[in-house]
Amino acid sequence: MDSNEAVRGLIAYLFAGSIPIAAFALWLQYFEGYLEVAAQDRGQTPPNTPQELSRLRTAGIYTMVAQVVIYIASSPLRESYWWQAAAFFAITLVGQNHLQSRMEAKLRKDGATAAESFNSSLRLILWNIGSIAAYLFLVQFCALLCALLSQALHLPATIGLTLTLAGGLFGIVSGLLLTFALAPLQIRKSMRCSPVEDPELLRLLRACFTQAGIAEPSLFIVDTPHSNWNNAWVAGFSQGKGIFKPGLFLTRPTLRNFNLAELEAIVLHEISHIALQHLRKRFLYTVRLLALSSTLLGIGSVLALQLLPPGTQVVPVLALAFFSLFWPMKWVRAQVTRQEFEADETAVRRFGVSPEKFAHVLKKLAELNQLPGAPSTTQPNASGHPTLQERPARLETLQAPPAHSPADESRRAA
């Protein structure tokens, strides 16, 4: 590629990479106007903050995915100016985060100062950028290594391309494996986390894991000083040590708003995810979907490069790249929904959580998370979690066997 072609390739990438962030900025302008009109129509009543936050974050996720897809698919256009393209990619991610955090601050009205919002947003985006950069480096390194190997062995072009695609697929799988395994570390570094130290809470958590017969993970409290976010979740694979050790995370408002018996139901639901090996199953399911979609992308790209005239190949390849990424996301979200219902049922049938008590806890979560500053729990979100209004109805059909309550044990130990 001569210098003029390289410059044109860089310009083409800069133009394509600008489209998602420009579209997101225009959508934010429309979204802000929509909120103002909605407030006027409701007689100055504030909009449904959790629902609007969910819409905003979903749009942000899709915008980031679009930027990543364009960056990966435009590799031939930016090969001569890779560091300028990488810098532009990072700038677009930071710019999107800045626009989104400003809109979230307007929605939440949570009292955070501009400096606090900026520092929190910067901390999160830096870790996200680092994670994305490491992931892309691993994918490209594996693909490049296989391409060099095929050249060294003087393999035919078709076999060499197949080997390169296989290397890229191996990089994708390896990157996903590290992403899942290092999720607890990512959460601790990107959010304000501190180890659980309260003796009464520690007794309850340890009793829950003992009852389930599962090794105790790292236990953390997530500080949300300007948010009433009530939530708990597990991250990482069930087996691991050091930076790979799994973690249980509870937000501080959850500890403030729920008593020990209610926390027991929440924690046993999360333990059910571990007992059912949901994260491992989600990882394997994601790998299978990506392997299939990557194969279709590879075949489609080869056909486009061979059958279409030069200059008309980029758009079909980008369209295939978007389809190959968004299609698996739809099926993974469906799996997440199924796993949430399975964890609810396991907490009741296997670990003896009262269906009535658990339904009460879920309804309480839904009510509390309607306060400003909490993510939506009554609207479907981008991760695929069912709403907290759907799950109590399913619990009413379950019957719990008699079981020893870790909350009772915690109270007796106290």
Concise description?
71% of the residues lie in helices and 4% in strands.
Could you please describe the fold and organization of this structure?
It is a single chain. The chain is mainly alpha-helical and 414 residues long. The protein is built from 15 helices and four strands. The protein has helices at 3-41, 49-73, 75-78, 82-108, 114-152, 157-181, 183-190, 199-212, 252-257, 260-275, 278-307, 314-349, 355-368, 391-395, 406-413, and strands at 193-195, 218-222, 232-235, 247-251. A four-stranded mixed sheet has the order 1-2-4-3, with helices on both faces. Helix 2 packs across helix 12 and helix 8 (199-212) packs parallel to helix 10 (260-275).
Q: How is this fold's topology laid out?
A:
Blueprint: H1 3-41, H2 49-73, H3 75-78, H4 82-108, H5 114-152, H6 157-181, H7 183-190, E1 193-195, H8 199-212, E2 218-222, E3 232-235, E4 247-251, H9 252-257, H10 260-275, H11 278-307, H12 314-349, H13 355-368, H14 391-395, H15 406-413
Parallel strand pairs: 2-4
Antiparallel strand pairs: 1-2, 3-4
Helix pairs in contact: 1-2, 1-4, 2-4, 2-12, 4-5, 5-6, 6-11, 8-10, 8-15, 10-12, 11-12
Keywords for this entry:
single chain, 414 residues, four-stranded mixed beta sheet, globular
